[in-house]
From TrEMBL:
Gene name per UniProt: PGDH
Catalysed transformations (reactions): resolvin D1 + NAD(+) = 17-oxoresolvin D1 + NADH + H(+); (15S)-hydroxy-(5Z,8Z,11Z,13E)-eicosatetraenoate + NAD(+) = 15-oxo-(5Z,8Z,11Z,13E)-eicosatetraenoate + NADH + H(+); resolvin D2 + NAD(+) = 7-oxoresolvin D2 + NADH + H(+); lipoxin A4 + NAD(+) = 15-oxo-(5S,6R)-dihydroxy-(7E,9E,11Z,13E)-eicosatetraenoate + NADH + H(+)
Keywords: Membrane, Oxidoreductase, Transmembrane, Transmembrane helix
Membership in a protein family: Belongs to the short-chain dehydrogenases/reductases (SDR) family.
Designated name of the protein: 15-hydroxyprostaglandin dehydrogenase [NAD(+)]
Pfam families: adh_short (PF00106)
Organism encoding this protein: Caligus rogercresseyi (Sea louse)
InterPro entries xrefs: NAD(P)-bd_dom_sf (IPR036291), SDR_fam (IPR002347)
Annotated GO CC locations: cytoplasm
């Protein structure tokens, strides 16, 4: 389990909503946070609120545009200068909906995340003289499905990119070079300012998903950071359901299918050594069946 205490976090998009919730949870567990947002007035208000609660020495704020790598780099340097230590964790939380237009949606949601991941590799990577670290990318269940209409397509494309990026950077070959752990949290609809009247109406009338309280997503974030494996992508679809983690679920199904396949073959009376390949065939068939059922379960849950 990875500890939060004494670690320095950068949390983008933290003036309000999930980013503010993540920051407060980190501070409660003994970490330090550099807040960042383009919403200056709300950013300063959040800074003062958290400083009054946890102390000025543990919270900072810097205006940064995640779509501009130079601005992002300035944020990183400001964090290290204020706290006089290297950044341990980057939380790529800044995001927008498709309602701002498809270009800006892709710029913030995928280019901004890529800028953050690129900086993390430059500043924390073992190959560049760093000591490694952690990156938490905030995706969405939208990264696994397509949107309900033409207008929302860019949002779903951007979140799919975040999922794929995390899996790629979280691969074993990448970790061998960087020693940076990349994980991704993909919550369903969270009860934040992003949910306007139209979106709430769509959720109520057409979606099987519930609107998640911010605290539920924050709890999922803490759980993923503390125990998530490198490259892990976890879905949070309902408040009372645990995180659905693809690697863990799939390996569980692999093991289960091997056992079931062997049992089926043995029950038919074929137990000889030369029947190993037939047992393997049954196991593969069982795995594919369970794999398809798992995917169908997730899709049915999402819609």
């Amino acid at each position: 389990m990875f500890d939060i205490k004494y670690k320095l976090f950068i949390v983008t998009g933290s003036a309000r909503g999930l980013g503010k919730g993540f920051s407060r949870a980190i501070l409660k567990k003994g970490g330090s946070v550099m807040l960042s947002d383009v919403l200056v007035e709300e950013g300063h208000a959040t800074l003062l609120e958290l400083q009054s609660e946890f102390g000025e020495e543990r919270v900072g704020y810097c205006i940064a545009d995640v779509t501009d790598k130079e601005s992002f780099g300035h944020l990183w340097s400001m964090a290290e200068n204020k706290f006089d230590k290297p950044v341990d964790v980057l939380v790529n939380n800044a995001g927008v909906t498709h309602q701002v237009g498809w270009r800006k949606c892709l710029d913030v949601n995928i280019k901004g995340v890529m800028n953050g991941n690129d900086l993390a590799i430059e500043r924390m990577s073992k190959k560049n003289g760093g000591s490694g670290g952690h990156v938490v990318n905030i995706g969405s269940t939208g990264g696994f499905v397509t949107g309900p209409d033409l207008e929302s397509a860019a949002y779903f494309v951007s979140k799919s990119g975040v999922v794929t990026l995390t899996r790629g950077l979280g691969s074993k070959p990448a970790f061998a070079v960087t020693k940076i752990r990349f994980v991704c949290l993909c919550p369903a609809y969270a009860d934040t300012q992003f949910l306007d009247t139209d979106i709430r109406k769509y959720i109520k009338e057409q979606s099987k998903l519930q609107i998640l309280p911010v605290n539920a997503v924050v709890n999922g974030f803490i759980q993923l950071f503390q125990s998530g494996e490198n490259g892990e992508v976890s879905l949070l679809v309902k408040e009372k359901l645990p995180l659905m983690t693809w690697p863990n679920y799939e390996w569980s199904f692999v093991l289960l299918s091997v056992v079931i396949g062997a049992k089926i073959w043995s029950s038919l009376g074929y137990k000889g050594v030369f029947d190993a390949k037939h047992q393997l065939t049954c196991s593969i068939g069982a795995f594919l069946l369970f794999y398809i059922l798992l995917r169908l379960f997730v899709l049915c849950t999402l819609f």
